[in-house]
Amino acid sequence: RKFIWNFTYKKSDYLISMTNLTKNYLIQNLNINENKIIKIDNPVISKKIKLLSYEKIDEEDSHIFEKKVFCTIGRLTRQKNYLELIKAFEIYSKKNHNNSNLIILGEGEEEKMLKKYLSKKKIINCYLLGFKKNPYRYLSKSSLYISSSLWEEPGHTLIEAGYLNVPILSSDCPNGPKEIIEHNNNGFKYKMKNIKDLEYNLTQISKLSENNLFKIKLNMKKKTSTFTEHYFSKKIKNYL
């Protein structure tokens, strides 16, 4: 219940939900009148993101981008499930002669555990870069954004990646990714807690032509249009 209420708020006589799955939960489990709940996409996108994406990355990180870069952003917590991602990337790297780098932007309680694993396995092409005030400059220069989360509501970085024309691979976790990502149409999904499927998708995506990737990125860019401040304001006004 705490999870649900953290992502909803009251406006006038309505309860606003960011995903249809959350809306259905409120109806079925909390006996809230369906007519009193509206689903509106969160206003994640703004022109500021695009402007921030043009900034240069830190000089000490520039060597990372001499290879293809896979990027993920978020706190180093159980929710983000980064150990699963690192293990899949480790397999992928061995098969592809370490032809790419993985960057993880964020801080959190699992940092020591992740660093210990990287050291034990001698993985030299995965970088824990810590918190970055402006992550968009790293995201926009990456070849793929990966979300390995166990749950998301709705998954803001997925939307931001799509807006910045970065292809997306996400776990099929609830709630946001299930609604936002359509596999092989506007992004890619793998079976959550399935390292083999994650590695398989990394391999398949790396084989795609630029033309196919362009179509997928274009479809996701269109999807992000409902996550703008303008669209949000327009929907709210309809209920005031």
Features:
240 residues; alpha/beta; six-stranded parallel sheet; three-stranded mixed sheet; 11 helices; 41% helix; globular
Report on the structure:
The protein is an alpha/beta fold and 240 residues long. The protein contains eleven helices and nine strands. It has helices spanning 2-5, 20-30, 47-53, 82-95, 111-120, 136-139, 156-163, 176-180, 195-206, 210-223, 229-237, and strands at 8-11, 14-17, 37-39, 68-73, 100-105, 126-130, 144-147, 168-171, 188-190. The strands form two sheets. A six-stranded parallel beta sheet has the order 6-5-4-7-8-9, with helices on both faces. It has a three-stranded mixed beta sheet with strand order 1-2-3, covered by helices on one side. Strand 4 (68-73), helix 4 and strand 5 form a beta-alpha-beta unit. Helix 4 packs across helix 9 (195-206). It is globular and about 55 Å long. It starts with a helix and ends with a helix. Mean pLDDT is 87; it is low at 1-12.
What's this model, at a glance?
By secondary structure, this protein is an alpha/beta fold. 41% of the residues lie in helices and 16% in strands. The chain is built from 11 helices and 9 strands.
By DSSP (H or I, 4+ residues per run), the number of helices equals 11
- Low-pLDDT sequence parts: 1-12
Strand order of the largest sheet: 6-5-4-7-8-9
Largest sheet: 6 strands, parallel
Q: Helix and strand succession?
A: HEEHEHEHEHEHEHEHEHHH
